Amino acid sequence: MTDNSTPPDARADELAAQLISAKRSGGATSSERVRFLEAMTEAVPVGIVFADTTGRIVHGNSRAEEMVRHPVYFSDDVDSYGEWISFHPDGRQVQSHEYPLSRVIRDGESSASLDVHYQRGDGTRFWMRIIGRPVCDADGAMIGATVALIDIDHERQLQKSQDILIAELNHRVKNAFSVTMAIVRRSLKDSIVPQETMEAIASRLGAYSSVHSRLIGSDWGYATLRQIADDVLRPIGGDNISLDGPPVRMSSQMGISLSMALYELATNATKYGSLSVDGGTVAMHWEIDASQDPESVCIRWREEGGPPATKPHRKGFGTFITQRAVAAETKGDVSVSYNETGLEWALTMPRPQHRENII
């Protein structure tokens, strides 16, 4: 009876160790045990290949042969793995030393993986993921290595189709923004709306379009805070705006709201703040506060080298975006200080919750 309390990976490692040890031992008893252990590998739904410490391949199951459509190549050593012909995503042929078996045996990696475009025996190609790990005996000494071969061709085809759809969506969104801007310009052409107002509308739509492109390019799931800030601020302030902070992922909703707030802060700085004079700068810094529950992200905008900041006489569109709107969308708190040295703005918000917050 199988001991189900043993983790699957541990049982697989034990099987690999027993198979390699049995092949090394020789003799009639070992031959029977080898056949028994090889039969067990046939129950595994992925391709399995074993090698000893020299890199000599000693076994491969039928699933591996079905996938690659040729018999298992019993390569003599790690330098012979080039006979398994495959290619990197950029078209370069995979070299012997790049295969996970070689990296585990020769380089001592505890785990190695590689996605390859494998050339089957019938000349066709498919995408395969190779995952390698060492095989150790009861004393912990390495006696070989094993790799699992996983067919990811369908996964790759789906990703390719998704990339095409995303590119088309991005193109359509850009066209929609262009049409919207054209309608606005034509509608206001003969009106008494000042040219400055028309340009402000165009710039705001441009900033909105920029962050949409960024989010669409990342599957509309997230963009990093740095990516959002860089896309919006670089065209306005260039090197006069410095960005500093750890990687933080932003959801699409939060990213759009923050991008609009940063745009308003930057354009205000070019008109009335530090970026309106030579030598003026803006420092944007953010940090994660892990002491809070949930964790929070604090973003600070500090202007220096420009005229003193003065509180506006009335609250216009920019004030609404940089304070009430961004606070509501991010569920955060905004503070603004009008100092002699320049404007200071800060947003403290809950850290966006994703399966992986940091990249």
TrEMBL record:
Superkingdom assignment: Bacteria
Keyword Ribosomal protein found: no
SUPFAM superfamilies associated with the record: PYP-like sensor domain (PAS domain)
UniProt cross-references to Pfam families, sorted A to Z: HWE_HK (PF07536), PAS_9 (PF13426)
UniProt-listed Enzyme Commission number(s): 2.7.13.3
PAC domain: residues covered: 112-164
GO MF terms held by the record: ATP binding; protein histidine kinase activity
Reactions mediated catalytically: ATP + protein L-histidine = ADP + protein N-phospho-L-histidine
InterPro entries hit by this protein: HATPase_C_sf, PAS, PAS-assoc_C, PAS-like_dom_sf, Sig_transdc_His_kinase_HWE
Keyword annotations of the record: ATP-binding, Flavoprotein, FMN, Kinase, Nucleotide-binding, Phosphoprotein, Repeat, Transferase, Virulence
Cited NCBIfam families: sensory_box
Name recorded for this polypeptide: histidine kinase
